[in-house]
Design a protein that fits this description.
alpha/beta, Rossmann fold, Dna Ligase, domain 1, D-amino Acid Aminotransferase, Chain A, domain 1, 3 domains, seven-stranded mixed sheet, five-stranded parallel sheet, 16 strands, 35% helix, globular, nucleotide-binding, metal ion binding
């Protein structure tokens, strides 16, 4: 820890598990208390012994966020604070506020135009083509003209079952309608038509993508986490084999258990994408291995560190360290590749093993269990908090029984 880090103000915006994990990593990297700006943070945050909570209204406007951050940092010297968040919408807001926040704050996000390019799943497919990596075959459905009574979605020439999701996450976050899901698995034309009606009536006027469904259960998924320095060089990269994903409608696709593993071929593809996009800051990729061909399929890049970034720290590479060295100290660290194998799991091992159909993989899990859960933090010594965290882990039995009672070859 440098003298500068001993004076740093770490700030995180949001109130979910991913925010706690970021706060824990900042605390471990700096030794400082962490300020979380949130409306209704989870108990693991509100009962933390090293997190200070400052209220931020739900759906706070850009100016409110700017004023709150500048108020926290009033009178501080340059490069003495850092702000993090973990939603696409907040990443975009913070990137747009860069000129208002720097030089006091480090803002480890790409520029807005880069976020717009990589976050739009339609544009992402074109970037993948240019980088020589495969992305899912897809059709983009534009709702910008959906107020016209004659509007109709285009014909979809991809065989069912399909996957449908918002092309731009921030636009989808802004609408609400009954049965809303993060990702839609669609088995028929009637289901797809029903989705278009729901989106149109909810006032959604951005773009949706319909993609081919790549077969394989959750264990075919891979996660890549990277930090790209201010000079454009990748300073940290690591990855994990997903074991199990959340299947609750609003959380589907979020891994809840992973094993860190080096995938150099995937890293090379990710770096070509980052270079092509002119990327800076944290990035998280979702990739699936097509069981029919063994070929990796890049689904998306999240312009932020990702909800499960703590798997990097558990494997010995806290992502905050290279970011702080780059943006706070102005002394970029040498490139680090994460190769240590650890189990990262938010769920009980007994539950996890129910979903593992490969005996060798199950043996690896047992050898690494119980693994690391970012919420189980020895620095947070509240007994009440610890009990709530354990209750949350056990609650996964109920959630999986309801939403994903047994593993399937299609992951839904």
């Amino acid at each position: 820890m440098t003298a500068r880090h001993e004076r740093i103000l770490p700030v995180v915006i949001g109130g979910d598990i991913g925010v706690y994990a970021i706060a824990r990593q900042l605390h471990e990297a700096t030794g400082q208390r962490v300020t979380v700006l949130a409306n209704a943070p989870i108990d693991a945050i509100s009962r933390s012994t090293y997190i200070d909570i400052e209220p931020l209204p739900a759906h706070a406007a850009r100016d409110e966020i700017r004023d709150a951050l500048n108020g926290l940092a009033a009178g501080r010297e340059p490069r003495s604070a850092v702000v993090m968040a973990n939603t696409d919408a907040m990443a975009t807001i913070l990137a747009s506020l860069r000129s208002d926040l720097e030089p006091v704050y480090a803002v480890p996000f790409p520029d807005v135009d880069v976020i717009d390019r990589v976050s739009d799943k339609g544009a992402f497919g074109r970037i993948c083509d240019g980088a020589g990596v495969r992305s899912p075959r897809q059709v983009v459905v534009d709702f910008s003209g959906a107020d016209d009574p004659d509007w109709a979605a285009p014909a979809i020439d991809i065989p069912f079952p399909l996957v449908a999701k918002a092309a731009v996450g921030a636009a989808y976050d802004a609408v609400e309608f009954p049965g809303k899901r993060k990702i839609w698995f669609v088995d028929s034309a009637a289901e797809l038509d029903s989705l278009w009606v729901g989106l149109r009536e909810a006032g959604f006027r951005s773009t949706f993508v319909v993609q081919e469904l790549i077969a394989g259960d959750n264990t075919a998924m891979r996660s890549i986490t990277a930090y790209v320095g201010s000079d454009g060089a990748v300073r940290l990269i690591g990855s994990a084999r997903v074991l199990l994903e959340d299947h609750a409608p609003t959380m589907i696709g979020n891994p809840v258990a992973m094993i860190t593993e080096a995938f150099p071929e995937l890293w090379a593809g990710a770096e070509r994408i980052l270079t092509a996009a002119g990327y800076r800051g944290f990035a998280n990729f979702d990739v699936k291995i097509d069981p029919a061909t063994g070929e990796p399929v890049f689904f998306e890049i999240n312009p932020r560190i990702g909800r499960n970034s703590f798997y990097m720290t558990a494997a010995g590479a806290n992502p905050m360290v290279p970011m702080l060295a780059d943006l706070i100290d102005g002394e970029p660290l040498p490139r680090k590749e994460v190769t240590t194998e650890i189990l990262y799991s938010l769920v009980p091992t007994r539950l996890l093993l129910r979903y593992i159909r490969d005996d060798a993989l199950a043996a690896r899990i047992r050898s690494l269990a119980p693994g690391t859960d970012p919420l189980r933090d020895p620095a947070d010594r509240s007994l009440v908090r610890a009990a709530l965290v354990e209750a949350q882990r056990l609650n996964h039995y109920r959630k999986f029984k309801r939403y994903y009672p047994k593993p399937t070859d299609l992951s839904y």
